[in-house]
Amino acid sequence: MGYLLKDRVASLDDLTDAVDRIAAGGTVLDPEVVAQLIGRRHDPLASLTPREREVLQLMAEGRSNAAIAQQLFIGVGAVEKNVTAIFGKLGLEDSGSDHRRVLAVVAWLQR
């Protein structure tokens, strides 16, 4: 079994080597294909800033925006901006039928 991208096969020797490995029962995958597959398993929580992670952790503890602001010594508006950024980075769009805050906390707890 093998999969090579035709524009990335540099020489006939590379292709021959791949065919020989497959014929011997091996597997050949183009490194670019592997990189794309691994990239798809990206953890959306990894894209959060340290402050967003703090805010999300406090959300997971059941704190309100006002309580989060007080604990982190920031304004409620700053908490709201962080919460909005968290929703965006986690791909939680405002559908009107889902509670994004709960979904964000569930994502945090499943890490």
Structural summary, described in words:
Pfam families: GerE. Residues 41-111 form the HTH luxR-type domain. This is HTH luxR-type domain-containing protein. Keywords: DNA-binding, Transcription, Transcription regulation. The chain has 111 residues and is mainly alpha-helical. The chain has 2 domains: 2-39, no CATH class; 44-109, Winged helix-like DNA-binding domain superfamily/Winged helix DNA-binding domain (Arc Repressor Mutant, subunit A, Orthogonal Bundle), CATH 1.10.10. Helices cover 58% and strands 4% of the residues. The chain contains 6 helices and 2 strands, in the order E-H-E-H-H-H-H-H. It has helices spanning 12-23, 31-39, 50-60, 65-72, 76-89, 100-109, and strands spanning 2-3, 28-29. The longest helix is centred in the C-terminal third of the chain and has 14 residues, at 76-89. The chain is rod-shaped. The two termini are 34 Å apart.
Concise description?
Residues 41-111 form the HTH luxR-type domain. Helices cover 58% and strands 4% of the residues.
